[in-house]
Specification:
Layout (H helix, E strand, L loop, with lengths): L11 E5 L4 H12 L3 E6 L6 H7 L4 E5 L8 H10 L6 E4 L14 H29 L3 E6 L12 H21 L4 E8 L8 H5 L1 H10 L12 H8 L10 E4 L7
Helix pairs in contact: 1-8, 3-4, 4-5
């Protein structure tokens, strides 16, 4: 098999929430495969641009609060203006709020659902319009979660939003596959990021999670690089509506 199937040279990838954690690792993975990166973040990263440049690729920094409605098409059009086109959208930006469901506030519900699910739809819609206008198809990769498959504890809005991401991925794939647009998702397992700091700090929860993971370790953000390159590349041209778990075997246990 030719490695050219995974070559992203000459393509532009828009990655939301890439100034840290999983998004950062996926942006660097795409850049290593040859893609230029347009990051959409609420705040910047001091060294991501220089790391992308060191790989011989271009990094463009766009700032936006994706929880605020409106402006998605303008963002996608601004991203496309950097190179004349976009080829890939990675919907990674998200938040989590932890509290017992009986005490969960309406604002914590709404904030998580707005960014984790509604913004994903709006950006995907804007990107699809751009792909159709370009006449070349494109790739959309959403970031789901283990809680797209399971209920979780003390994270009702996060679970609902990530379950919605899995369903939305399938729904959009059904409509957009005939347009040459691949819509898929990655479901990261338990990763060593800021979002899981509270879990890792709880010795009992940490040990219970590790005991369930066949690989025997928390995932690293870098573990997502191969998966994102695959789904963004020609190697996945016949993959539509799939959510790929990168979980150390968690779901197989």
């Amino acid at each position: 098999m030719s490695t050219g199937l995974f070559d992203l040279a000459g393509r532009t990838a828009v990655v939301t929430g890439c100034n840290t954690g999983l998004g950062r690792a996926m942006a660097l993975g795409l850049a290593q495969a040859g893609a230029d990166i347009v990051g959409i973040n609420r705040s910047g990263s001091a060294d991501l641009g220089s790391e992308v440049a060191a790989l011989g690729r271009r990094y463009v920094d766009l700032r936006a609060d994706l929880s605020e409605r409106g402006g998605e098409q303008a963002l996608i059009d601004a991203a496309a203006a950097t190179s004349g086109r976009i080829d890939i959208l990675v919907n990674n930006a998200g938040i989590i709020r932890r509290r017992a469901a009986i005490d969960f506030s309406e604002s914590d519900w709404d904030d998580v659902m707005e960014l984790n699910l509604s913004a994903v739809f709006r950006l995907s819609q804007a990107a699809a319009r751009r792909f159709v206008a370009q006449g070349r198809g494109g790739k959309i990769v959403n970031v789901a979660s283990m809680l797209s498959f399971q209920g979780g504890v003390r994270v009702p809005s996060y679970t609902a939003s990530k379950s919605g991401v899995l369903g939305l991925t399938r729904a959009l794939a059904n409509e957009w596959a005939p347009l040459g647009i691949n819509v898929n998702a990655i479901a990261p397992g338990y990763m060593d990021t800021n979002n899981t700091a509270e879990l890792r700090a709880d010795a009992q929860r940490n040990d219970a999670i590790l005991a369930r993971i066949p690989a025997g370790r928390w995932g690293s953000p870098a573990d997502l690089a191969g998966a994102i390159v695959f789904l963004a590349s020609d190697a996945a041209s016949y993959v539509h509506g799939h959510t790929l778990a990168v979980d150390g075997g968690w779901l197989a246990r």
